Amino acid sequence: MEIEQVAEMARAFAALPQSHRDFFDGLVADERAKDAKDKRIAKLRTMRDFQALDFILKDARRGMTIFDLDVHAVARGLVEAGFTREQPLAAPAFQDGVTYAKGDRVQVRGVVYECLNDGVTAFFHVFRGRDGRGVESTRITSPEWKVV
User: Fold this and answer.
1) Which of 38, 70, 88, 103 could form a disulfide with 123 if both were Cys (CB 3.0 to 4.6 A apart)?
2) Domain residue spans in the chain?
3) pLDDT at 32
4) pLDDT at 140 over 70
């Protein structure tokens, strides 16, 4: 496109009513926002896991402390960075929300565990890094177990 054509388009734009100019300004703003989001995602995907997490947490901070986070922004940032949610690793005996009594025994992957107190199992869902490394096992919060 020649510079004269651009100048002619600029004059035509300037001659438009304000409502039309506002419409075109909105289109330009939308394109710039989309481009900025694409660049942000590309930047996140080139970072190492902890760098990406640090960037996401700083971006989601809404107050003076780490507790003042926009959790939706954190979740969105993790997805944009390429993190995936892993389902808990659970053998049939270790299902989420199952009640066990003291003395109950279960076998998981060839290891026998004895329940040390009454309780209900609960699992933490963990995020795994984009490279597939990370926490391999899920922690059982209750009851307590010992290997027999």
Assistant:
1) 88
2) 3-83, 99-147
3) 94
4) no
